[in-house]
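Dear U.,

For the methods section draft, I wanted the exact inputs and outputs in one place so we can describe them consistently. I've listed the two proteins in the order they'll appear in the manuscript figures. Please don't edit the token lines directly; just add comments below if something needs changing.

First protein:
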Amino acid sequence: MREVCLIDVCDVIAGQSPPSSTYNQNGDGMPFFQGKADFGDLYPTVRYWCNMPKKLAKPNDILFSLRAPVGPTNISAIEACIGRGLAAIRCKDIELKYLLHYLRGNEDKIASLGTGSTFKAITIGTLKNLRIPLPPVAHQLKIATILDEADVYRQKTIALLTKYEELSQSLFLDMFGDPVTNPKDWEKVSTITYCDCIVPGRDKPKSFTGETPWITTADLNHLGYTLKSRNNIGLSTSEIKQVRARIIPKGSVIMTCVGDLGVISINKTDIVMNQQLHAFLCNEKLNNIFLMYNLSYQKPYMNKMASSTTVPYMNKTVANNTPAIIPPLKLQNEFATKIQAIELQKAQVQASLEHAENLFNSLLQKAFKGELTE
């Protein structure tokens, strides 16, 4: 199967963010997509609009995340302004769904091309020169159809997981109300009031030969539990000492503070984490499951208070001052017990999803080796 560069078969448009003073959430101007945080299941979610758009995506452009993280894709259903965290890929001599499946099936491989210490990013030049296998159009269509059909069960399973997640969110709101508006008038404090915190050092390990998981943003299971790194890497005792890292004890609430703000998880084992993350260790006034959900509603605060150069960033003070409501501990524990019951159901669905994804990934590998076109 012959290969071509992406730029040979597509137009690739680098995003350019408009002045921040032109952003709004009132629907004034053109929809504005900034990065992966805007991505939905297939089409992105409009969170902001702007009055001075720079670079535009058209309907049916593939939106590609260039940074923090590299690789996620979406399809633009509308004409929209795109920020510097995105590129728009406009298919010319390649089938849209074929290319979309290729990019998603090779996300980790593409992400490995990213560079940077604080966060990974890929240049627009690297994206343009990405090598793509290009079978005849009829074979592209056949591959896209097979993969679309194989993806149906996987997507239904993902949708069921989403329903469980919505149930958990609904349960929280029923019991406590929206933490931002605090309609039930709970005590409201800075999170650090009833927590200790751990902020990782800046030194990045040079080797990963141990058993203590090395956790980054990409490893977090939002509103769930994090057990290991996606790459199955960890640090030894000597490597931890070498970079002067602190071990984050099991049961801490982990929160992203760089890039995609407000991804929240609880670690199920002792971990070491990179500097994009912030850890809260609850005292006797806070249930960690309750706090995880509590913090997930504070993205408006995070986005407002974060400094932004290339990506949003919350320093230690801003992260620690994230607002938290404090209902009675008995009620927090009751909520946590109900969430744990939901998590058991989710675990069964997750096992089905892993089976579906293994089958789908097997088809992906065959597709791009030319084994589905015979």
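Second protein (the one for the lower panel):
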Amino acid sequence: MFTKEQIRSANQVNLIDFAKSQGYLLENGGRRAYHAKQSGGLYFFKNSNRYFHFSSNTHGGTIDFAMHFCRMTFKEAVAYLLELELPQKVVSSGIRERGQLILPDKAPNYKRVAWYLIQVRGIAPEIVSLLIHEKKLYQQDNTGNCVFVGYDQEGTARYCSMRGTTQNKPFKQDREHSDKSYPFHFTGNSDSKRVYVCESPIDAMSRATIAKLRAQDWKAAHYISLGCLSDQALESFLQYNQINEIVFCLDNDANATYSNGSPAPNWGQEAAVKYYVMYGDLGYRTSIEKPKYKDVNQDLLELRHLWQSEQKFDPIEHMPE
């Protein structure tokens, strides 16, 4: 239906201008990018005319953006871009109407999830047990996936993230209609004023485990997962909790690459620096804990391995009955 030249021309339509025309509110996302507000980590790159979306782990050019975010077919996307017409399917605010979140079916036990988190990921059994008790963690029926749940102030589930437990078949996905404004989190003591901010639920659990292994009071702080690199989860959490100190424990993406193999920015640390400054300006005491390895969980596993080799303690505790 289209020639190669027509497709090339459609893909050369300025992506940033196109996103603005669809109602996306853009802010500075670093030296090379713009960030779309309330988007689940949607970034537009100034020089390459491409985007990257952390929540869905998708990226591409203008045609890809029109297909993914405007829900158009390839033919519709190219036609609209060539004719410079605005898709009628797009909500003008850039924020889609959200449907009802339906949680996955729950398995009759937690054995596989407990095994995966404790034996494979090195999480302290006490922390796993606590989250199961608080109904923030359970095992998906049939698949055995870990299911992490975030609730609103009325106790209604509003966010759900699933993580596979098969080591050679990685799986990670947010449940449809999840709202990242209601993050997976677990709270510390009633007088806790510090929050550790991580990208994933497993990283948040890992940071608490590291404190426990260091004989620190891991309940002296709160722990939240952003579910990506957008700060909407943190912004929401701060509205309902008395916090004066924020510690950013975001990924160390030092070896990140694009799909073509070319070097990509250190997404996690660029976001950490950005939020360090932004929330510091808002009056919070901020700091950055940069993982030595890729993320907090890998740091935990390396720490367990080191201490095990030094025979300082049994590296994996037994899950309580």
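Candidate sentences for the figure legend, describing the second protein: The first strand starts at residue 26 and ends at 28. The first helix runs from residue 4 to 11.

Thanks,
Y.
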